Amino acid sequence: MFRNQYDTDVTTWSPAGRLFQVEYAMEAVKQGSAAIGLRSKTHVVLACVNKASSELSSHQKKIFKVDDHIGVAIAGLTADGRVLSRYMRNECINYSYTYESPLPVGRLVCTQRSWKRPYGVGLLIGGLDESGAHLYYNCPSGNYFEYQAFAIGSRSQAAKTYLERKFETFVDSSRENLIKDALFALRETLQGEKLTSSNCTIAVLGIGEAFSTLDQETVQRLINEFEVVGEDPPAEAAAAPDQSDGAEPGPAAAAADDDDQETPAADQGAAPMDI
Amino acid sequence: MCRTCVAIAGADYCVIAADTRMSTGYSILTRDYSKIIQLADKSVMASSGFQADVRALQKVLAARHLIYQHQHNKQMSCPAMAQLLSNTLYYKRFFPYYAFNVLGGLDSEGKGCVFTYDAVGSYERVGYSAQGSGSTLITPFLDNQLKSPSPLLLPAKDAVTPLSESEAIDLVKTCFASATERDIYTGDKLEILVLNASGIRREYMELRKD
């Protein structure tokens, strides 16, 4: 990007009324691996791509439980993300200590400080309160917005395109369909790599369901059930129509791929899921 | 000092019991107040004394346990919780929590453990304990039934009682029935929590209401 004389300090405005340090911090978010959030009236699903810095290392944790009813997925400087989740966890614990009730998510989202460097991490905060399920995006500028679905991090535009197509169905979506959509959106950011349970993490929370991260086996089973494969699938479904994702004529796949059949009928076709 | 709490550790279970009467002076405030709280999946605490301090102490421990779970991704073990309780109590050494606690649970090997405390955090792992106004009546009886011979004798005997779970529960019921007869602060109803490998179970028994 550009270097100029107004970008050394976060407390210096440029003549055009911009804080360059904040904008540079927002660039850091775009460098991180993708994180996606979607919500229905009753559930929020957070999903992220697990990127390991080398083949020898393990991937960094990007989804954190903040409280039973709040979870956060981060993209950008994961160290900053961890500092913020620790802060948010403390806020939740202090609030429920004082008020004996869970912290409303909207109160959690203001966390930036003006005298230090901005946090170089974007937060997708999913939470539940009395008015239902919410998804917020908190960016390094301190701004936050509520979303039906959003994606951040590298190659998130591909996921956003998918989400923009489908978001109107999310409000009344079932929990399983929401997870399915998250997996599909995640697949878009992988651009050709095969989606497996080892390169993604999914977390769910909802009314009556505390925040939890799905374990690898469950995720792999869901991936297989929804037949979510990469763009160069092995021998199987070469001549698939573009909307479906290499679906074989199995009972689960048939209902799952067609947009018009995004109804309860799709659930009955799929195997019962005991997650 | 109001209320009475008792805990007994067994080979693979732990029994914690407390009455449910809350009183002040010669009056009863309520007949149905639980003093037992489950702090972690294998730790249960019962406290007698000033209930406002007891409640505050329970909240502090619950918050600290949440933090532990966030940082370590697992529940606190009973011995760890025992140390935390001791530190929390000593933190207020010069303005103490007026709470007399007994912590019970299963240790990491699945054996029953009971820890008994004073108000400022001095604690010890024992095989059984009683705290509260009825403790002076119950402890001699438990000593008679459960106390192992001197630890100086060989072979070394475990503090944990050889009684079975149902025998221990019956013993606890007997203790409270007797304490209720003579202690004005003990009575109304007995709440018993049993922790074992299959989880936690609650039982209730009516006590004399006078």
TrEMBL record, chain A:
Key word Coiled coil present: no
Biased composition range(s): Low complexity: 235-255
Classification via Pfam families: Proteasome (PF00227), Proteasome_A_N (PF10584)
SUPFAM superfamilies linked: N-terminal nucleophile aminohydrolases (Ntn hydrolases) (SSF56235)
Keywords linked to the UniProt accession: Cytoplasm, Nucleus, Proteasome
Location relative to the cell: Cytoplasm; Nucleus
Residue segments, region Disordered: 230-275
UniProt xrefs under PROSITE patterns: PROTEASOME_ALPHA_1, PROTEASOME_ALPHA_2
Protein origin, superkingdom: Eukaryota
InterPro entries: Ntn_hydrolases_N, Proteasome_alpha, Proteasome_alpha-type, Proteasome_alpha1, Proteasome_asu_N, Proteasome_sua/b
SMART domains linked to this entry: Proteasome_A_N
Domain Proteasome alpha-type subunits: 6-28
Classification via PANTHER family: PROTEASOME SUBUNIT ALPHA/BETA
Assembly description: The 20S proteasome core is composed of 28 subunits that are arranged in four stacked rings, resulting in a barrel-shaped structure. The two end rings are each formed by seven alpha subunits, and the two central rings are each formed by seven beta subunits.
Function field: The proteasome is a multicatalytic proteinase complex which is characterized by its ability to cleave peptides with Arg, Phe, Tyr, Leu, and Glu adjacent to the leaving group at neutral or slightly basic pH.
Family per similarity comment: Belongs to the peptidase T1A family.
The protein's name in its UniProt record: Proteasome subunit alpha type
Lineage: Eukaryota, Viridiplantae, Streptophyta, Embryophyta, Tracheophyta
UniProtKB/TrEMBL annotation, chain B:
Pfam families: Proteasome (PF00227)
InterPro entries: Ntn_hydrolases_N, Proteasome_bsu_CS, Proteasome_sua/b, Proteasome_suB-type
Subcellular locations according to the entry: Cytoplasm; Nucleus
UniProt xrefs under PROSITE patterns: PROTEASOME_BETA_1, PROTEASOME_BETA_2
Keywords of the record: Cytoplasm, Nucleus, Proteasome
SUPFAM superfamilies registered for this protein in UniProt: N-terminal nucleophile aminohydrolases (Ntn hydrolases)
Superkingdom in the source lineage: Eukaryota
Subunit note: Component of the proteasome complex.
Physiological role: Component of the proteasome, a multicatalytic proteinase complex which is characterized by its ability to cleave peptides with Arg, Phe, Tyr, Leu, and Glu adjacent to the leaving group at neutral or slightly basic pH. The proteasome has an ATP-dependent proteolytic activity.
Family, per entry: Belongs to the peptidase T1B family.
Protein name: Proteasome subunit beta
Organism: Rehmannia glutinosa
